[in-house]
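Appendix B: a complete holo record

For completeness, this appendix reproduces one full record from the ligand-bound portion of the collection. The bound molecule is adenosine-5'-triphosphate. The inputs are the chain sequence and the ligand SMILES; the output is the full three-dimensional arrangement of the complex, encoded as structure tokens. No fields have been trimmed.
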Amino acid sequence: MASDAETLLTLSGVGKSFGGTVALQGIDLAVQTGRVHAFVGENGAGKSTLGKLIVGVHEPSAGAITLDNTPVHFASPAQALERGLVAISQELSLMPQRSVLDNIALGREMTRGPFVDDRATRAHVQALMDRHDMQIALDARVGDLSVVERQKVEILRALGRDARLIVFDEPTARLPSDQVAPLLALVRSLAAAGKAVIYVSHFLDEILEVSDTVTILRNGEHIRTGPTARETRETLVEGVTGRVLGDQYPDIAPPDRAAAPVLSVTGLARRGVFSDVSFDIRPGEVLGLAGLVGSGRSEIARAILGADPAEGDIRLNGALAGASIADRLAGGIAMIPESRRDDGLMMGRPIFENVALPHLRQLSGALGLNRRQERDEVTRACAATEMKYAALDDPAEALSGGNQQKILFARAAMGDPVLLIADEPTRGVDVGAKQSIYNQIATLAASGKAVLLISSEIEEIMGLCHRVLVVSRGRIVGELADTALTENALMTAAFSGT
Ligand SMILES: Nc1ncnc2c1ncn2[C@@H]1O[C@H](COP(=O)(O)OP(=O)(O)OP(=O)(O)O)[C@@H](O)[C@H]1O
Ligand SMILES: [Mg+2]
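The structure of the chain with adenosine-5'-triphosphate bound, as generated:
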């Protein structure tokens, strides 16, 4: 740990409201150079908002921020960036069509007279990469890069602008599990190089490993700030939720193996993506689909939903399923997609619509059935996920990231599906809410529904599934259940085809 930490930034009495919603109040905090400072808290606690106040995305409604002991007011991220404060965004904000070089250098090109000096700019960016030991092909198109590489481009862009403080908001939420350790090492190296780093995450193990200081937020209030060395997983959970959580995973009774399958998949294939996929799921069964990111798990799920074309046989309760998504939804399949922004939510539309939309026809079936009942059902579905929101008519984008994820769960569970496909259902969700999502999965299974669970968190797969299929390179390479279902066996199978 760097010993020469100095206070870079302070917040005193900082508050932020959005209309009637108080996102933060009375926050007093100091951020130091050469340190990793973690923010933890439940969904909607105010972590992202606090980060956004620091980097000029939002302006405080109350209180003061000082930088180098001088008060500052940022009206835009550009102004904060001028002073070296920058965020690596939760939803990455690069220009996908442009090259790595352009993305890092844009607005900072070297010039000769009035002209951009391409060679000097290249050399400058290359030197930056060398200095921080992060190499990415300068001419690669950013849209073709992996999530990890894109993150590196964002970090390099920040460093190229002399960043002094970098905010990471859930940087590992979208990372394949084998990329987490390298990212944490990178975060440490930034602190070692004297940067102040703010690190927001729901992964408590990451917080314990990477941070020097931790701040706990609850309902927009500052609970405590102190050295990470004094915290444990248990103290963090208690600080974040305000209660002691018991066993995280519910007991889910084993399915009746003699029962007829809810879903039967035979010889499912999509050229170049996956092949020879065959399996059954029985009523009450939670079947896991494990494997590395890119192994084909999500693609298989999308084909079962009917979102992508595929060859092969899909039967729902014994009957051949129709080909379209509409047929499959009508047949009782519900899906929580992997990417809430791309496939899942209409960000500008009300929460109510986002939850109810696929169900509206059904609800209003008899005599335009009544709006009151619709709203009651939606309210109940939202409450079951412990979603935190002010009004059902607020747009989805007014919710915190984890609460947006819960919209998708509420929508899927409300339709009373026979098969729920859940692709990373707890991504970005806090510990308490994770538990409520797990309980909902257990409730669905107990009522005879089938659940197909895709997750990159091995613990989650182990904690919830009766049986697990391991996918590697588009093929099912292993099936694990009962005593054979161990973390070790899972990892070995997942890496076997690579
Ligand atoms: N642009 C906005 N308009 C209205 N309300 C907002 C906006 N941004 C955040 N909020 C509200 O402020 C509160 C804090 O949200 P924030 O995004 O900071 O939470 P978070 O701690 O980052 O949660 P998560 O873990 O889910 O990402 C929430 O109640 C949220 O609904
Ligand atoms: Mg957030």
